[in-house]
Give the backbone structure.
Amino acid sequence: MLKRSAINSSIATAKHYLKKYGLHLPPFASWTVEEWNHKGSECDEIRHCMLGWDVTDFGCGRFAEIGRTLFTLRNGTLREPGYAKSYAEKYILDPEGQRAPAHFHRGKMEDIINRGGGVICIQLTPWADDEERSGRRFTAQVDGRRVELTPGAVIELMPGQSVCIPPRTIHQFWGKCGTGYTISGEVSTVCDDWNDNCFLEPASRFPEIHEDEPRAAYLCHEYPPAAPGFGLGAATIGDILKTQRP
């Protein structure tokens, strides 16, 4: 179970390094819980598309090793047919060694970009059509340049460099030990965290939280519905997604 104190601390750390590397967040990144409690339906895109802070240990209880602190700047949604946005963008805090569980996406294509700081290590392995790890060599696009790799190869990205990860490519990435904190960026097609993530080991995308101190900010799946009197209210994203969990 992930402690709220760890969530609050990691958000504060992310804000520090984003500022240090000259990366700016929109105003809602700093809205307090009290401010959010008075926001109306004009903020429904933030709620419905799960923009904002996202801190998770994937249910493993080892946040320093397996975890993520992200801020989603923009996203679409696949729950509303015809929704206009077909893209997403995130900032990700990369402490040395911390990573998400190995996983791939059924439909999402993403670029991972080193936005500043240290070195990002990213490991890639194609997932074969027979749902087994492929042993064949494959190609990846690094800064628009085609490179040939063996399964499980680790690419190192310096600030400014990027790699494209097609759907059905197993990946993990982390900050290289000895290089300090890094901020990575993710630019992708629409991110659907409930239906498009395929973890190789059991994992929960959003954590159970031990409330050992007051929350400093709502996470992207915790927003309250629109305040009464501010237009048509919406259910929280957490309420919506409870009905869609496998």
